[in-house]
């Protein structure tokens, strides 16, 4: 099909060329040029060809005249690109001093200035030279302000200054103009600063940004939720928070574990047990099995019988055997405790 298209295109071009030649041949036009006694007569077609030839000659002469100067700029560009590549490789390999040197040299080329200075700031921060890192980011902000702001917040957070990092990102977050990496840094800085409300509020735009994969986002979300649960002041606040969480968040094992332990610490043992048992009925979780056996309460014998019933479906689960052993120890059933703990150690020494 493509061959026929090319053939058709050539036929059309040939037809246009023949028509154009016939049209020009009937009346080629007349051009007269007089200058200081010089007189030149020609046709329009010849005049156009002469002008095109003159333009081509002048262009070639201009490029030839610029070639020596262009050679220096081409060499500078080539060396800068090479240094940028070498600096990035050194940064990944952990040779941060070499990386910083090569990247600073690469930043002398205007087109590479922003990326090179950003990477140089990261290299300096990894060396622990936070002052130099911030200086590089100040320069990088002139060409890449958003990226420099996010990286500066990361440097400040790693330096143990989450409040400053948070203050740097909050104005952009209030406008909704943070970059994807900025939302992640905002969550981490707010979490480190104890501003759990803002950390939770930043989770939704972070998820929509796609900055993190599913597993990484789930881990960060669980970290924020666990910290929020552990910060509740009393049982009423805990129950209010728990009822407001979406169902998907209330089914994460580490979040259920945090809720159950916090609820038990407030004397809400029955709600804690209900959540753990419901979660285990939906999906088996070694973490929640250990939680189930470690919570305080007077119903330890009933819980032991229920947990022993799980052995039929999970006979070789080391966490279940460990939980059974601990519960037997609490009930002073030394023989059964020894049997369960030995089997757990055989499956998962630790």
Low-pLDDT stretches: none
Describe the sheet with the most strands. Answer: 2 strands, antiparallel
Mean model confidence by pLDDT: 86
Strand content: under 5%
What's the quaternary structure here?
A: single chain
Which radius of gyration do the C-alpha atoms yield? Answer: 37 Å
Distance between the termini: 70 Å
**Percent helix range:** over 70%
How would you describe the shape? Answer: elongated
Number of helices: 17
Strand order of the largest sheet: 1-2
Provide the succession of SSEs: HEEHHHHHHHHHHHHHHHH
Structural class category: mainly alpha
**Secondary structure tally: strands:** 2
Summarize, please:
The chain has 350 residues and is an all-alpha fold. It contains 17 helices and two strands.
Structure keywords:
76% helix, 17 helices, 2 strands, 350 residues, elongated, two-stranded antiparallel ribbon, mainly alpha
SSE layout:
Blueprint (H helix, E strand, L loop, with lengths): L1 H25 L4 E5 L2 E5 L1 H50 L2 H11 L6 H14 L3 H11 L4 H14 L3 H14 L4 H14 L2 H14 L4 H17 L4 H10 L8 H13 L3 H14 L3 H9 L5 H10 L8 H13 L3 H14 L3
What does this molecule look like?
The protein is built from 17 helices and 2 strands. Helices cover 76% and strands 3% of the residues. The radius of gyration is 37 Å and the shape is elongated. The longest helix is centred in the first third of the chain and has 50 residues, at 44-93. A hairpin with a 2-residue loop joins strand 1 (31-35) and strand 2 (38-42). The model has no long low-confidence stretch (mean pLDDT 86). By secondary structure, the chain is mostly helical. It has a two-stranded antiparallel ribbon. Helix 12 runs antiparallel to helix 13 (269-282).
């Amino acid at each position: 099909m493509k061959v026929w298209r090319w053939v058709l295109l050539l036929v059309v071009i040939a037809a246009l060329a023949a028509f154009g030649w016939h049209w020009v041949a009937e009346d080629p036009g007349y051009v007269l040029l007089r200058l200081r006694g010089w007189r030149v007569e020609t046709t329009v077609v010849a005049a156009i060809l002469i002008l095109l030839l003159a333009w081509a000659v002048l262009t070639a002469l201009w490029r030839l005249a610029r070639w020596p100067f262009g050679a220096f700029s081409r060499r500078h560009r080539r060396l800068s690109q090479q240094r940028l590549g070498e600096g990035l490789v050194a940064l990944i390999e952990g040779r941060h001093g070499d990386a910083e040197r090569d990247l600073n040299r690469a930043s002398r080329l205007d087109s590479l200035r922003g990326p090179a200075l950003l990477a140089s700031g990261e290299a300096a921060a990894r060396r622990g030279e936070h002052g130099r890192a911030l200086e590089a980011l100040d320069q990088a902000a002139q060409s890449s302000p958003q990226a420099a702001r996010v990286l500066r917040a990361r440097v400040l957070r790693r330096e143990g200054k989450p409040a400053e990092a948070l203050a740097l990102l909050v104005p952009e977050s209030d406008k909704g103009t943070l970059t994807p990496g900025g939302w992640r840094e905002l969550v981490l800085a707010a979490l480190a600063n104890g501003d759990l409300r803002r950390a939770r509020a930043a989770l939704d735009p972070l998820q929509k940004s796609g900055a993190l994969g599913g597993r990484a986002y789930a881990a960060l979300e669980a970290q924020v939720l666990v910290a929020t649960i552990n910060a509740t002041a009393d049982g009423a606040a805990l129950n209010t928070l728990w009822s407001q969480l979406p169902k998907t968040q209330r089914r994460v094992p580490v979040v259920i574990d945090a809720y159950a332990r916090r609820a038990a610490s407030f004397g809400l043992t029955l709600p804690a047990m209900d959540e753990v048992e419901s979660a285990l009925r939906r999906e088996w979780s070694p973490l929640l099995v250990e939680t189930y056996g470690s919570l305080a309460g007077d119903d330890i014998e009933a819980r032991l019988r229920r947990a022993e019933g799980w052995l039929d479906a999970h006979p070789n689960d080391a966490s279940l055997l460990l939980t059974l052993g601990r519960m037997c120890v609490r009930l002073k059933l030394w023989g059964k405790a020894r049997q369960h703990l030995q089997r757990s150690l055989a499956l998962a020494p630790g």
